[in-house]
Amino acid sequence: MALTLYVDTDRWRAHQLSVIRQYPGIVPVCKGNGYGFGHERLADEATRFGSDILAVGTTYEAARMKDFFGGDLLVLTPFRKDEEPVPLPDRAIRSVSSVEGVGLMRGARVVIEVMSSMKRHGVTEADLPKLHAAIDEVRLEGFAIHLPLDRTDGSDAVDEVINWMDRLRAARLPLDTMFVSHLGPDEFSRLQQQFPRTNFRARIGTRLWLGDPTATEYRGSILDVSRVTKADRFGYRQQRAPGDGWLVVVAGGTSHGVGLESPKAMAGMTSRAKGVARAGLATVNRNLSPYLWGGKQRWFAEPPHMQVSILFVPADAPEPKVGEELTAQLRHTTTMVDRTVDR
User: Fold this and answer.
1) Which runs of E-coded beta strand occur in the chain?
2) Cα(308)–Cα(340) distance, integer angstroms
3) At 92, phi and psi to the nearest 5?
4) Is residue 317 within 8 Å of 296, Cβ to Cβ?
5) CB within 8 Å of 230: residues ≥ 6 apart
6) Which of the listed residues 18, 256, 263, 267 has the most CB atoms within 10 Å of its CB?
7) How far apart are CA 56 and CA 72, in angstroms?
8) 3-class DSSP string for 144-204
9) Do the beta carbons of residue 291 and residue 311 sit within 8 Å?
10) pTM of the predicted structure, to 2 decimals
């Protein structure tokens, strides 16, 4: 009995194909936990649809992925001079975000990241004149720009890329290939039309693998069910049951990512009010689980354990049975499943 990711494979692959058609020359991204599918599975998918390159997050991921994927491996984390050396094949391409970094990568294949409005890392406009000598010592695969997801100032993503293309051209730097992130299909098409001699390559992960939420579903198996009445004590901390019902032990705990949540960016009064309400309930040990039963999201009876969670299901809900499964609303990028089932 397990926490399982069910994949409607035909639907999932149909969505992949729709994204690939919108972004010719796409660079599929496989980093972290492989977007919930795992590195090996996504490497197989990228090979199946004929990608010549796969983007990974770190050199450590590249070292593992070299055995699963036969094409080029683009490491997204920029090179740092004091990083731990990791043996990589010649088909590995390193991202570099400084003139110094380019100078230290003599003979290597590199993509140079430019500083976008993300303000995260990248060479600046002032650095461009210094790049001429440095790029002669490396095998330059192109430049790259990583754009923000939201543009609250009303600015245009395409304009930001065009401004950088103009700067690179003015500095007489090669514009053969530009790697871009977080552009819509229409924006990507506009760039291709504006610069027909430049090969734009969109680095895409979430939209490619998770863009159709109906293609996947998490479910946890029910391992045990115990009937309780109001005020019965239970669990590690011997809390009291809030009412009559059942304690349901379900597959999926902290080692799977259940109950772990990354911070959310709050926008608007409604989302902030909900956040305050959740925090208030947590102070009295009331935490909603990601599991649904009888059409409703159910409460954790106590904090999730390492491999299982215990839920409280009230008596007015359908009686849960051992062996049945509960649908779970889990975040793909933080979840590790016991198994994946294609159907």
Assistant:
1) 3-7, 27-28, 53-56, 72-75, 92-96, 109-114, 139-146, 177-181, 199-204, 216-228, 233-234, 239-240, 245-251, 288-293, 296-300, 308-314, 325-328, 339-342
2) 18
3) -85, 135
4) yes
5) 240, 241, 242, 243, 244
6) 256
7) 10
8) EEECCCCCCCCCCHHHHHHHHHHHHHHCCCCCCEEEEECCCHHHHHHHHHHCCCCEEEEEE
9) yes
10) 0.91
Amino acid at 221: S
The phi and psi torsions of 5 (rounded to 5 degrees) equal -100, 115
Find where tokens 């909900």 sit.
274
Q: Could you report the per-residue pLDDT of 73-92, keeping only the tens digit for each?
A: 999 999 999 999 999 999 99
Which tokens is 180 given?
């871009």
Token pair, residue 229, equals 């009445």
Residue pair 200/191 in contact (Cβ under 8 Å)? The answer is: yes
Question: Which one-letter amino acid corresponds to residue 37?
Answer: F
Confidence of residue 279 (pLDDT cuts 50, 70, 90): very low
Residues 183-204: tens digit of each pLDDT: 999 999 999 999 999 999 999 9
- Mean pLDDT calculated for residue range 37-65: 98
Tens digit of each residue's pLDDT (9 = 90 or more) over 110-167: 999 999 999 999 999 999 999 988 999 999 999 999 999 999 888 999 999 999 999 9
pLDDT at 259 exceeding the cut of 80? yes
Angle between helices 157-170 and 185-194 (to 10 degrees): 30
The CA distance from 27 to 56, in Å, is 10
Q: Which amino acid is at 108?
A: A
